[in-house]
Design brief:
Blueprint: E1 3-7, E2 10-20, E3 23-32, H1 35-50, H2 63-78, H3 81-99, H4 109-123, H5 127-147, H6 177-186, H7 191-203, H8 207-210, E4 218-219, E5 224-227, E6 230-235, E7 251-256, E8 265-268, H9 271-291, E9 296-304, E10 311-319, H10 347-355, H11 365-376, H12 381-388, H13 393-400, H14 405-420
Antiparallel strand pairs: 1-2, 2-3, 4-5, 5-8, 6-7, 7-10, 9-10
Helix pairs in contact: 2-3, 4-5, 7-9, 7-11, 12-13
């Protein structure tokens, strides 16, 4: 147990901990004005030591407190920024208000099944969103059982989603040539979006990969494009200093790691995209001269992630007239004045595409279309999978390759030819 004694004008507490190499070890802390303060602090510290560093008793803690612990100790260290944000929103808006007040050890499979059923009935969420809620339950309890041992069994393992009579609609839209031409023609004067859309259509890159490109990633002579990072949007507390956008914008852009190891790749690009990017680069050089000191430049600043304690790259903006002692970053898809808006570049154009052009789609559909058209054209599935940055061919088939009317017709024609040759 703890002992308290006076040392000079202050008090200190002391308690024994496990011996190391057979030698007695003690924890001592001094500087308390009164004996009572020292006893209180010592008791808290000793109890925390006896509970192996936790300032709670796992069997009596609430699920709400455990989720905070899980987010800090697991999610913020191991998961991508946007995944953490999605989990936090689900926990804040749906999990904590309904079952957060239960003790962690008190929650059973029936508790969680009723929770899922009630949300399904009351909210009418899509099957995909309900899957995400269930994923939070299963992964948080898996950590509690398999990693930290706060509970003996995972009550979420056997929880099932309610049956959806109507299957989920496929959100993908495979563009026709006419639609692609309509979109490119409509935004021929918005070059940051125009060339970004063209790049996505001809390469199948993800939106975060497209806007994470810098000019040194593109070899226009060898006609190759390298994906070695992506762009990540983070919402910072407080207004950003020297921000080029109007209002009190809090968005700051970072370079992030790619989605998976197989996402790091170098792909070939054809003449159409190569020539387009050559035009765009020459145009940017012209605008740099025209805007002069008021052209926006970008720099890479290494900062430490507050959660993982690992370095990451933050993008700093400054007008050309300001000297910045940081490596310059030549982002590809910027506005005429050099301003970089990242993936926010696509927000307004897609409102126009939806409501003016009447095409219901997402930027990701350029990727879907790229993959599907390659398969239609008879491209090798392994080559397509590698081009898209997938770890397995199965992913390419199940997620990105859609059965189009052309594929259906080809299937019928092939069977007809086979049958006629019998």
């Amino acid at each position: 147990m703890i002992s308290v004694r006076k040392r000079g004008k202050v008090y200190q507490y002391q308690y024994d901990i496990a011996p190391i190499d057979g030698k007695r070890k003690r924890v001592t802390k001094s500087g308390f004005k009164t004996k009572a303060e020292a006893e209180k602090a010592g008791t808290i510290a000793y109890n925390e030591y006896m509970q192996t560093g936790h300032n709670f008793v796992p069997s009596t803690m609430s699920y709400s407190d455990y989720l905070d612990y899980w987010l800090k100790e697991h999610c913020q260290i191991n998961l991508k920024y946007h995944t953490i944000q999605a989990y936090q929103n689900i926990i804040k808006n749906h999990v904590k208000p309904r079952i957060g007040y239960y003790m962690l050890s008190q929650i059973t499979t029936s508790t969680l099944q009723e929770f899922i059923n009630n949300i399904y009935v009351e909210k009418g969420f899509s099957k995909n969103f309900l899957k995400n809620i269930l994923k939070v339950l299963k992964t948080s309890f898996a950590y509690a059982t398999d990693v930290v041992g706060f509970v003996k069994e995972n009550p979420a393992l056997k929880v099932r989603l309610p049956k959806y009579d109507i299957p989920d609609e496929d959100p993908a839209h495979i563009f026709t040539k006419e639609e692609i031409n309509m979109i490119l023609d409509r935004f021929k004067n918005n070059h940051a979006f125009y060339y970004a859309a063209l790049t996505a259509y001809y390469t199948g890159l993800r939106v975060s990969e497209v806007f994470g490109l810098t000019w040194d990633d593109i070899d226009l002579d060898k006609q190759t494009l390298t994906v070695n990072k992506n762009i990540v949007e983070k919402n910072q507390n407080g207004s950003t200093h020297g921000r080029h956008l109007s209002g009190k914008a809090k968005t700051v852009w970072y370079f992030g790691t790619c989605k998976t190891p197989s996402s790091y790749r170098t792909i070939d690009i054809g003449d159409t995209l190569t020539n387009a990017l050559k035009e765009f680069k020459a145009e940017q050089e012209k605008y740099k001269q025209e805007y002069g000191d008021s052209y926006m430049k970008h720099y890479a600043k290494e900062v430490i992630n507050q959660y993982t304690n690992k370095p990451e790259i933050k993008i700093i903006n400054a007008f050309a007239e300001i000297e910045v002692a940081l490596p310059e970053v030549n982002l590809v898809f910027v506005k005429n004045n050099g301003v970089f808006e990242g993936t926010a570049t696509v927000k307004y154009p897609f409102k126009v595409i939806h409501y003016e052009l009447g095409i219901s789609c997402r930027f990701h559909d350029f990727r879907d279309t790229h993959a599907t058209r390659l398969i239609e054209a008879g491209a090798d599935i392994k080559a397509v999978s590698k081009r898209l940055g997938h770890s397995t061919i199965r992913t390419t088939y199940e997620i990105y390759v859609r059965v189009t009317s052309k594929m259906k017709n080809d299937t019928v024609e092939r069977f007809e030819q086979f049958a006629l040759n019998l």
